[in-house]
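Q: Predict the assembly, please.
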Amino acid sequence: MSDLIAGAIAMASFVIALFFLRFWRSSRDRFFLYFALSFGIEGVHRIVSALTFDESEDTPLHYLVRLLAYGLILWAILEKNLPARRSRSK
Amino acid sequence: MAITIYSLCTLTSLACAWLLLGSYRRTGHRLLFWSGASFVALTVNNVFLMLDKVVFPDYYLLPVRQVSALVAMLLLLYGLIYEKE
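A: Predicted assembly structure:
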């Protein structure tokens, strides 16, 4: 059952990544590319952790990948907002 | 080490949710709302990750963690499908 849900989460992540990839292609806004990358990484991470799930190997280090995915989103939002703030202050 | 990584996961997802919902309030783009809602659910997912691994290692919380992650993905998927760009 848990493998089934992990598969569903991975599939949803990949579909979300594809949606953002399409937005990136049509708008050329890097904001969407970071989102696509982040959800792609999340999808791969879910599959790898479902396949290699083993109590002894389930180390916290493995969740650094998740941090990378969230970091990309944070970077995307900050990059989008910083120029706006800079131009507003001028 | 473990506590640091799990806390960072929770804090970064919370920051994403906060910034996305803040952007939604300023711009009114509905997609930002669904992304923010998704990260709220991911934050819940990471809180349960921490509870599972650090606070209550004897309890089996994997189903709760998985369901919260699935809810997060479905919220964003719903937004992407039903909202205009």
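The interface with chain B takes residues 1-2, 5-6, 8-9, 12-13, 15-16, 19, 23, 26-27, 35, 46, 60-61, 63-64, 66-67, 70-71, 73-74, 77-78, 80-81 of chain A (CB under 8 Å). Chain A has a mean pLDDT of 84.
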